[in-house]
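Quick question, first post here. What does this chain look like in 3D?
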Amino acid sequence: MAVGLEEAFGAAGEFGGGQRRLTAFLVLLQVYVACQSMLIVLVGAVPEYHIDQEGIPASRAELAKHIHFADNFTSIVTEWYLIEQEAYKVSLASSLFFAGLLIGNITFGPLSDKLGRKPVYISGLFFDVVFGYVTALAPNYDIFAVSRFFVGIVNGGMALVSFVLTQEYVGKSFWSFTGSLTNLTFAVGIAVYALLGYCVREWRYLVLVSNTPGVIFLLLSFSSTLYNLKKSRNHELKLCMLPESPRWLYSQGKTSEAEDVLQYIALGNGKERLNLKLKPSAGTWRKDESAPGILNLVKHPVLRWRTIILMYIWYACSFVYYGLTLNAGELRGNLYLNVALSGLVEVPAFPLCMFFIEKSWSGRRKTMTCFLIFAGLACIFTMFLPTNAGLLLSPTVLALCGKMMVSAAFNIVYIYTSELYPTVLRNAGLGVCSMSCRFGGILAPFVPSMRSLSPSVPFVVFGISGLSAGFLTLLLPETLNKPIAESIEDLQSPKYQVLKNKEAEQTS
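> Answer (accepted):
Ran it through. Tokens below.
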């Protein structure tokens, strides 16, 4: 008897041992992604310095003779004298990385929808490692900045595809858990990077050490599944490396291959060989038809308005998140402790997310709205603090509170967006939203320079963005306990609408 995809996941095990191994592998990859994303925070940090003559020397050679940096660490600032008129180059390198993320999200999302998640992910990780080593060996600033741009392209695209893979290996009921776990590991990765920076003070060595996990994950991408395959030899499953997403295979009409992956998952979960047959996917297109792409997000009214609203929410989340993270280096106190705290402060946000987004009285929409509004208010309240406020009311503490709230919202928006798009357009939708998200990342490094107007101005800018995004979230539909659409037709079919209404009645 033919069954649907969700029923097949239930038979194979929605989150058994095999899926836990695959999920753990892809989730731990976020430590590497975090090190690459936060690299400029320490590599571009400015140590204390003084110039032993009046005015700034005109040439770099003269500047080198008269400037004295504190010797507690090195950075691109100390090697290439990026101070005063040249200081903008640090923010420029950071913005180039986020511009690369933008391009990576535009290209890798649709590519993985057409070519598959697995080949695009592995290709991205390979080039991420290669350009990471180019960054470490860059002989001058120009090559450093260009390498960061290319790292952004492949790192952003690879991270997006690996996130979708993580979601599509498990049953829908575990999406909030795996999505939260992925973002939690990214936060821990920021703290790990701060620890590496504390131990490795030479910036080139720090880049090399931060890039090494990428090599390990690349090798494990080939070897980990081969080990599991050995146990399944008697079952004649000819899979290698990380298996392809069964949801993607099913959406492409490759039901037999999707069945093989589900058999593989079931064996990894300790189950016997399953006798299951998948129903044909309603969203399968003929070979003479074009595959669903980004234009479908514009053509269909339901998806068009969802995409416009989600694009702004993603932009605001990124703008506030990375603005507060990159601003950690500008805060008073120990540089490494501030960076570590900016990551660790996110950890409590994820249990809160897991609790609220699964409750029928809050769900995805209301929870994300509240977190964004609280993040905006925390940032705005810094302008009302007196200059002599104590530790508990310092801008640093409020900034960390804002960071915790916006990281919670950022975590939810990944899960929420995955559920708002059908499988055939999920990566395209996430790619477009991530594209707008990167505009926030591009602008964020320059906002801390507005401190010259007033120390509270950057926080007010972040606060207004958070508040506006929070209120816009109320225009989106709730997805808690709703069925996942596999095709565009599912969004408009009467059967899907009836099932959606029944699910809503059961949870009310």
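The two ends are 33 Å apart (CA to CA).
The longest helix spans residues 203-231.
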